[in-house]
């Protein structure tokens, strides 16, 4: 049996000769049309298959408009076939039309009506592509909005395990800065705030020169927040507004729920993360009250797209702790946040949009004060946040305790102090929109820091190539110290980030 023109085309397609494949597919179409004066279902099905192949051939040649046109033709010939919708969706993605891509992927999924291996693969491909379209619809405007920062990277959805990932769009040389990212929200550590609130901008964490003008927070009633510019003051409004200006007694009153919350978290190892949760809840509440967002997710903006999951459930599966006990531990903190930032029925909830945010449970609590939401915020911070170190460039002297243990069984410990010279720096934790799309590798190809140029640091996260990175490669950094043992890395990655690393180094 002589092979059909379609089969011949397929042979050239497999060899990567797409031009020749296109030529043969087009001849094949003509042959079917010439042979079939009367259009019937069989010829239409054949035409749908061959035009779908034409679409993918043009796609391979990066001729996306033609790829789309042939995919749409293929759909016309057989609207019940699933694959042409996938082809059309893929072409729409390349043409930056994410809305139509989403629609076509959904139609592809809807049209899959068998359960064999090919159908399962197609379903998997279409589901991943649908996620990719949704993700791109959100991230592409951010990347394109700041080309100076982000024009060397792109974000793609990989699969249901690793989800989003960051890729190099161009070849990158070792040592080059690939991109840098400003935090969506940032929290200074308790110690850094105590030590530095007088010499930094509370929003951008820049050390302010003693001769420069300092802009104070509007609240004259004791708030220690200060800024280096009106812009920083304005930008901090969404998260600082409620914890300060609406509560003029806050700083003075130790009975205020916010003061109590801060006092409760002050000495726990994750204090900075728990303070960041407070800032996030403050921000969500502010945006809901001022009707700038319809619901918590919209209030979270960019952060909505960060990887989330319940941290307590993660921890209980890691160390066998009882989930309910863990949740009970957090309940007092949550109640304080609700007292401080809760929406009041009469004052704020006359609006249908906000009513939709109500928990259907008791007492008209809104979802933001449910333990599940709090847990998801903790998970989101755990999976995505990164520490920042901003240095002033100067050294300072601090007193550190020296503990001397006297002789004898019941001797008293005498605490003496000694002077230590340290680099004057501020520690914090931030959530970064693009940076947080980067996956982990135990063989990272980038290193991260807060240093833009020699010795000058800021709260901006700077991602530098550790090796040459070819265009199209995934950009990966290590979530833990790569020199740790396999077991140590495995434990950190699972307990903190919720995944089991499958790289060659970990599988040894
Ligand atoms: C900062 S996010 C990275 C972006 C993430 N892929 C997403 O879609 O948002 C961290 C999360 O990504 C996933 N992840 C990162 N690296 C991974 C890897 N090598 N293998 C499996 N999952 C990984 C884990 O779920 C982790 O908690």
UniProtKB/TrEMBL annotation:
InterPro entries: SET_dom, SET_dom_sf, TPR-like_helical_dom_sf, TPR_rpt. It comes from the Eukaryota. GO terms for molecular function: histone H4K20 methyltransferase activity. Keywords: TPR repeat. Gene3D superfamilies: 1.10.220.160, 6.10.140.2220, SET domain, Tetratricopeptide repeat domain. SUPFAM superfamilies: SET domain, TPR-like. CDD domains: SET_SMYD (cd20071). TPR repeats lie at residues 2-35. Pfam families: SET (PF00856), TPR_8 (PF13181). Residues 151-480 form the SET domain. GO terms for biological process: negative regulation of gene expression, epigenetic. This is SET domain-containing protein.
């Amino acid at each position: 049996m002589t092979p059909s023109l379609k089969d011949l085309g397929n042979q050239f397609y497999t060899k990567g000769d797409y031009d020749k494949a296109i030529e043969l597919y087009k001849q094949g179409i003509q042959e079917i049309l010439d042979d079939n004066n009367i259009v019937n279902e069989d010829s239409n099905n054949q035409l749908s298959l061959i035009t779908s192949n034409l679409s993918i051939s043009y796609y391979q040649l990066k001729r996306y408009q033609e790829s789309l046109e042939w995919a749409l033709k293929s759909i016309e010939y057989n609207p019940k076939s699933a694959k042409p919708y996938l082809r059309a969706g893929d072409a729409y993605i390349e043409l930056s039309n994410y809305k139509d891509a989403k629609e076509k992927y959904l139609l592809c999924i809807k049209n899959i009506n068998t359960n064999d291996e090919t159908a399962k693969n197609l379903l998997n491909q279409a589901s991943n592509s649908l996620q990719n379209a949704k993700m791109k619809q959100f991230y592409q405007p951010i990347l394109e909005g700041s080309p100076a920062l982000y024009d060397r990277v792109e974000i793609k959805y990989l699969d249901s395990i690793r989800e989003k990932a960051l890729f190099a769009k161009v070849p990158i040389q070792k040592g080059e800065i690939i991109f840098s990212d400003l935090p969506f929200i940032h929290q200074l550590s308790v110690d850094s705030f105590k030590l530095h609130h007088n010499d930094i901008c509370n929003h951008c964490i820049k050390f302010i020169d003693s001769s420069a003008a300092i802009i104070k927070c509007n609240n004259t009633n004791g708030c220690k927040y200060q800024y280096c510019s009106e812009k920083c003051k304005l930008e901090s409004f969404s998260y600082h507004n409620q914890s300060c200006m609406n509560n003029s007694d806050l700083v003075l009153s130790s009975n205020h729920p916010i003061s109590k919350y801060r006092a409760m978290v002050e000495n726990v190892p994750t204090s900075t993360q728990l303070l960041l949760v407070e800032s996030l809840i403050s921000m969500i509440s502010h945006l809901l009250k001022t009707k700038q967002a319809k619901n918590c997710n919209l209030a979270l903006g960019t952060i909505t797209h960060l990887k989330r999951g319940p941290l307590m459930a993660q921890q209980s599966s890691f160390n066998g702790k009882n989930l309910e006990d863990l949740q009970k531990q957090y309940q007092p903190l949550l109640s304080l946040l609700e007292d401080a930032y809760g929406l009041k029925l009469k004052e704020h909830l006359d609006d249908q949009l906000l009513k939709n945010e109500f928990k259907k449970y008791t007492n008209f609590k809104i979802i933001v004060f449910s333990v599940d939401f709090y847990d998801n915020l903790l998970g989101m911070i755990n999976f995505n946040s990164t520490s920042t170190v901003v240095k002033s460039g100067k050294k300072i002297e601090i007193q550190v305790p020296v503990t001397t243990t006297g002789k004898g069984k019941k001797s008293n410990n005498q605490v003496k102090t000694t002077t230590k010279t340290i680099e004057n720096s501020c520690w914090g934790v931030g959530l970064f929109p693009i940076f947080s799309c980067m996956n982990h590798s135990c063989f990272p190809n980038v290193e991260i820091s807060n240093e833009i140029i020699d010795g000058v640091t800021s709260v901006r996260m700077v991602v530098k190539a550790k090796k040459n990175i070819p265009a199209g490669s995934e950009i990966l950094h290590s979530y833990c110290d790569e020199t740790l043992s396999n077991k140590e890395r495995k434990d950190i990655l699972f307990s903190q980030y919720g995944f089991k690393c499958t790289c060659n180094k970990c599988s040894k």
